[in-house]
């Protein structure tokens, strides 16, 4: 519902003939144009609240992944290390976010596209695990998504920022490489040995 409603604001601005140079702030400018100034402040507060909720969700996910999933791959028998791994994952997420925010010429559109590639890398393995659970196990799912998403995202980002022509290849690797690796590692666990 929210993406559709936010998209409608873009159509309202286009229908009103508004000329907006930076399309990343179209919604805020349309609200400022048609509603009183207090509505713009309220809208920005809602956007900020939504972003904080997303940040909280990402911190929880990273803490769970590093403190449970990754830690269990390398556990040494100390339970208190799970908390350290979770905190380390959250700090790493914050550092990655700072590095991404300082990429020259990055736009909000790029961030949405980058996130779409990450979602695409999770989609097919998740569907396969629901429809054919015997094809994929936990190890295959973890490494398939991790490797497919990482390689696909690197190719996509370098292509979108103009360093190479690999944006489409990155999407293909994320969409089709993740399930292929997930099934492959599930069928042949010896492909990845950590212990």
TrEMBL record:
UniProt membrane topology term: Multi-pass membrane protein
InterPro entries named among the record's database cross-references: Na/Glc_symporter_sf, Na/solute_symporter
Signal peptide: none
This protein's record includes keyword Membrane: yes
TM segment ranges: 38-55, 85-103, 109-130, 142-161, 167-185
Compartment annotation: Membrane
Keywords assigned: Membrane, Transmembrane, Transmembrane helix
GO CC annotation, single: membrane
Single GO term (MF): transmembrane transporter activity
Principal location: membrane
Family statement: Belongs to the sodium:solute symporter (SSF) (TC 2.A.21) family.
Name of the protein described by the UniProt record: Uncharacterized protein
């Amino acid at each position: 519902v929210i993406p559709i409603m936010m998209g409608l604001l873009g159509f309202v601005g286009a229908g009103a003939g508004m000329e907006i140079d930076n399309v990343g702030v179209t919604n805020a400018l349309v609200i400022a144009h048609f509603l009183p100034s207090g509505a713009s402040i309220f809208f920005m507060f809602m956007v900020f609240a939504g972003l904080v909720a997303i940040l909280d969700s990402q911190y929880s996910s990273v803490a769970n992944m590093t403190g449970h999933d990754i830690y269990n791959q390398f556990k040494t028998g100390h339970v208190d290390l799970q908390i350290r791994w979770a905190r380390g994952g959250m700090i790493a997420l914050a550092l990655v976010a700072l590095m991404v925010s300082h990429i020259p010429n990055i736009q909000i559109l790029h961030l949405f596209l980058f996130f779409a590639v990450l979602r695409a890398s999770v989609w097919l393995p998740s569907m396969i695990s629901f429809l054919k659970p015997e094809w994929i196990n936990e190890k295959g799912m973890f490494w398939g998504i991790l490797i497919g998403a990482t390689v696909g995202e690197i190719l996509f980002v370098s292509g979108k920022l103009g360093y190479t022509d690999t944006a489409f290849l990155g999407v293909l690797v994320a969409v089709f490489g993740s399930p292929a690796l997930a099934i492959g590692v599930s069928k042949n666990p010896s492909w990845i040995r950590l212990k």
